[in-house]
Predict the 3D structure of the following.
Amino acid sequence: KRTPKDVKSTLSKLPRGSTALDDAYKKAMQRIKGQLNGDYQQAKKVLSWIIYAQRPLSTDEICCALAVEQEKEDLDPENVPDVEDLVSVCAGLVVVDKESAIIRLVHYTTQEYFERIREEWNPNFQLHIASTCLTYLSFRMFRSGSCSTSNE
């Protein structure tokens, strides 16, 4: 909404009570599912990486993870997504912290919601994370050993 009056009017119509947040997140998920199939799948991957990650991910890390192609020996720079596109396809559920370049869910209640539904929503994503990490570590550039600098 663009005016204070419109914002107040919309806020007054929002559902209240214990299920209000879940209803709001379900509507956000419907918006995401209503996108083009490629955008929906990308949003599902972004949200799943954030939800299942053991620590906050930087924008570079999530872009790199999403660019990994199974059974390839190198990372194709042309397959690296744009961060703004990732934020856009997630329909307001993720934000990027400008100072730290961390991509995260918009609110702690979003994390709580996904923790409740993640096993039914994307139950095999931990396997995808493991496969992506193994593919990445098998890239040709790592065959000579570990890198001594960030640029390497």
